[in-house]
Write a structure and sequence with these properties.
alpha/beta; about 25% helix; Quinone Oxidoreductase, Chain A, domain 1; seven-stranded mixed sheet; six-stranded parallel sheet; Rossmann fold; 17 strands
């Protein structure tokens, strides 16, 4: 039975984009939208913290031509259960929980049945936490995310935050954390394997710490000499500045795997030159073409593999939370008020953050 009965549709305070119906270019502004009370096995969560993801920047500006307006971003959500509907069995009021990139899926396709709702092959794919269809059949859109006072989610898509974990720092584990954990886990490498992490931003800095905790010898790959010291402090053994030809030459064919976390278009060929024969590079974060066409000879000559990855599965999402709690891994975050989110978005465009913005949603009441 529900511990708290909520029967109304409630107007929820939030910060959104395009809320006046205009095209991209507006600043995030205060808005309201209607959120239904939890029903069935849904959980009502008061949002405490929400990370600012690089995908928020792309979607807010409609750079992928996918944005549904109005848009309320946020899919790195840490909160506290406020109410549960009658069929909820996994959570109770007061539990500290997390919500990542998905809040539902078709639940009947092969990927969903195998625990990979992130690869849902239903008509509209997984139900995204924001900028998605509210129901998997596409009958209603759009979903509104964590830049808001609360969110309603099916309990199967709610994650437990380990006891004692810093709640603000936990938020990025729900998107970039699991996004890097999944590929690193699939590499299935032995201790001492030489793993390259390309791009030392939000996802990359987490990947360095996780890969090291998994037993890898980590090489950070960055275009910025200024990130060398930070990468070493995070646990990297080596740092390659990819704009330095001597660095690239010195480390040619030295890595067992590369995980690239670079969100903007780049030339993949030079990175492939760092791999050993028959090694693998996984590109996550980039959701578009590379800056230069890839000559397949770059792969075929050494039997290399180039893979893609996007958001993580629900099992991996819980695993990464537990893994990071066990190993004392926390993303480095800058906590901001919601009033400063537009400045944060602009700073993120310029890569001016070490390494992740997280919004304290208690500030929404003063917005």
């Amino acid at each position: 039975m529900a511990e708290t009965e909520i029967t109304d549709t409630t107007r929820i305070p939030a910060v959104g984009y395009g809320t006046d119906g205009k095209t991209p270019g507006n600043r995030l502004t205060r808005t309201q939208f209607e959120r239904d009370a939890p029903k069935g096995n849904e959980v009502l969560i008061d949002v405490l913290f929400c990370g600012v993801c690089h995908s928020d920047v792309h979607l807010l500006a409609d750079e992928w031509k996918l944005t549904l307006y109005p848009c309320v971003p946020g899919h790195e959500i840490v909160g506290r259960v406020k109410a549960i509907a009658a069929d909820v069995s996994k959570f109770k009021v007061g539990d500290v929980v997390g919500v990542g990139c998905m809040i539902d899926s078709c639940r009947s396709c092969e990927p969903c049945l195998e625990g990979e709702a992130n690869h849902c092959s239903g008509p509209h794919g997984p139900t995204l936490t924001y900028n998605g269809y509210l129901y998997p059949n596409g009958s209603t859109h759009n979903t509104f995310g964590g830049y808001a006072s609360n969110i309603v989610v099916r309990e199967d898509f709610v994650l437990r935050i380990p006891e004692g974990m810093d709640l603000a720092a936990a938020a990025p584990l729900l998107c970039p954390g699991v996004a890097v954990y999944g590929p690193l886990k699939r590499f299935n490498f032995k201790p001492g394997a030489k793993i390259g992490i390309a791009g030392i931003g939000g996802p990359g800095h987490i990947a360095i710490m996780i890969a090291k905790a998994m037993g890898a010898e980590v090489t950070a790959i960055t275009t910025h000499e200024s990130k060398r010291e930070a990468a070493l402090k995070l646990g990297a053994t080596n740092v390659i500045v990819s704009t330095n030809p001597e660095d690239m030459k010195e480390h040619a064919k030295s890595l067992d795997h590369i995980l690239a976390t670079i969100p903007n278009a780049y030339d993949v060929a030079p990175y492939l030159g760092l791999l050993k024969r028959k090694a693998t590079m996984t590109a996550m974060a980039l959701l578009g073409p590379y800056s230069e066409p890839l000559n397949n000879l770059s792969l075929a000559a050494q039997g290399l593999s180039l893979a893609g990855s996007m958001i993580g599965s629900l099992p991996d999402s819980q695993e990464v939370l537990d893994f990071c709690a066990e190993h004392g891994i926390l993303p480095q975050v800058e906590v901001i008020k919601i009033q400063d989110v537009n400045e944060a978005i602009e700073r993120l465009r310029k890569a001016d953050v070490r390494f992740r913005f997280v919004i304290d949603l208690s500030s929404l009441q003063n917005c």
